[in-house]
Amino acid sequence: MAKPRIMFDTDARHPLIYMYEPPMQKEEYESAVDEITGTPVEGLTFSLGDTQSLLHDSKVGGMWGEGINRWPHIIWKRARQNADALIADGNDPLKIICDRAREKGILIYPSIFVQQGGRERFIESWIDEKQGNEFSKTGGAGFKARMKDLHIGSVGDMDPDDPATNCYDFKHAEIRNERSALIQETLNNYEIDGLELHLSYTPYYFHPNNIESGRKIMTSWISDIYERVKTSNKDRELIVRIPTNINSCISIGLDPVEWIRSGIVDAIVAEPLNTIDPMADFRPLVQASKGSECRIIAGLPAGVVSDRQGTASIEVIRAAACNYWAQGIDGIYLTGWYGSWPYTPRFYAKLREVAHPDIMAPKDKYYVLPTTGGRVKPMANETLQLPLNLDVDVPASVTLEISDDLPLWNSKGRVHEVLLRIRLSHNTEIDKVEFKLNGTKLPEKSLRKINELYRMTGPRMGGGAGSGYWNIFRLEKEYWPVKGKNTIEFTLLKRDPHVLPSPTVHFVELETRYLMGKNFHRSFVDSDLGPYDGPEG
Question: What does residue 423 show for φ and ψ, rounded to 5 degrees?
Fold first, then answer.
């Protein structure tokens, strides 16, 4: 069987069963496959949810919202309506996807949330006798009620606000067996090319005191799933989606290096963050896979933390993708791109290039360091470089890695300009900051400052950025960054004595801009108007 190099993660709900008016038509459901047909995507993972929130015709798991008769959440009601209508018409939703993928030549991998977490707690809050809602005895909330003693925090020694507290503890065989049953049913009943265990969603599996023993339990369970997959069809694959950082995995009871060594996973999807991170480091996993049959596939999200972008532009995608390919990965996995639905030509332009680092090499790129804040929260044992606090006369720095070979493309007359953008928060016009790139002070003559101290209205503040200034350097050739790792240093030389908040470096961005050819224009006479596209004559 062919091994997919570009994979696309799609959610059965948000761009699909939520969107269409009941009763949903088979052709509408097939759109999940149709919309990525004809692109470089070779493999599609299709989310089933967890074992008790299914939207297909399962006999062993619980259906979405089972036991709920009156729905406080209208869209969740629609999802169940659409699933019920399709099944009643003899159109099992999962079979629709599998059949359509096979018809269009796309490999299909159902994806299972191994741990769901807080969503079930929300459903439990819907139980209200006055509303006429009842627990099911076989699944849904009824299952949840029976299983409460199997939560990680059931012994009562954990903080109720700890996200692990209400997750299932995988030391219990009942939890593992319940998931194995759904997996076996999926292997038996559907024409699939493999399946994915989504382990990075709500990634808490064992009590903090039992992590070491938990790793052995999880390895044994994954080995069992691998055997089930191969017994069903030797050509089928088991894919696991995990955090990128090996230490983070170890800290939550996952041991990907042992899985690779034991040969019990065919591919690992390494997910850095829920936002794009061009600095993500896949090298430890790539090194661990050397000499094995396991492929390392880099997760590439579509979201970005910025005060100007919420969805990554093609330039941001190029920067991250090129950095990832340079690390020796085996493929790219497009995570959460379904958030851009309905898809536009800009979406397909990103898809067209992402598999080809050589094509992207002499094209505009936009490197954005991720910033902690909002929904961006690093995993255990991980920290992000930003935001970075500044103290007077104390140098601070970040590392920025790029894949651009600027001297090469400059020799061909292709480099247009290189811009370094640094957003300082909580600073005033009185502050004085010195900026260095790879040890060389950047000259003030190349600096343009933009006052963002106060705005009545404006774009999203991305990552909690406060008031301050953008510092934008148009870099001359002698100050260009190098291919690989670069150090950007900041020294606060003078601080406004009449303000209290500490200044921070909140955003760091590097933009490389290219020409289509030597002495080519950037747009219509280098203006922002673009080429003339009106009627001829």
Answer: -100, 115
Q: Report how far residue 352's alpha carbon sits from residue 314's, in angstroms, rounded to the nearest whole number.
A: 10
Per the omega criterion (within 30 degrees of 0), is the bond before 345 cis? no
pLDDT category at 273 given cuts 50, 70, 90 is: confident
Report the C-alpha gap between 524 and 521 in whole angstroms: 7
Packing angle, helices 314-325 and 345-353, rounded to 10: 20
User: CA 90 to CA 88: how far, in whole Å?
Assistant: 5
Average pLDDT, the chain: 90
Query: How is 188-244 classified by DSSP, letter by letter?
Result: HHS--SEEEEE-SSS---S-GGGHHHHHHHHHHHHHHHHHHHHHH-TT-EEEEEEES
Using CA atoms, how far apart are residues 318 and 310, in angstroms rounded to an integer?
16
Residue written as token pair 């108007």: 529
User: Looking at the predicted structure, is the pLDDT value of residue 331 above 90?
Assistant: yes
Domains and CATH numbers, the chain: 6-363 (3.20.20.80), 388-514 (2.60.120)
User: 353, exposed or middle or buried, with CB in 10 Å at 0-12, 13-18, 19+?
Assistant: middle
Stretch 278-306: mean pLDDT, rounded?
A: 95
- Under the banding of pLDDT at 50, 70 and 90, the label for residue 383 is confident
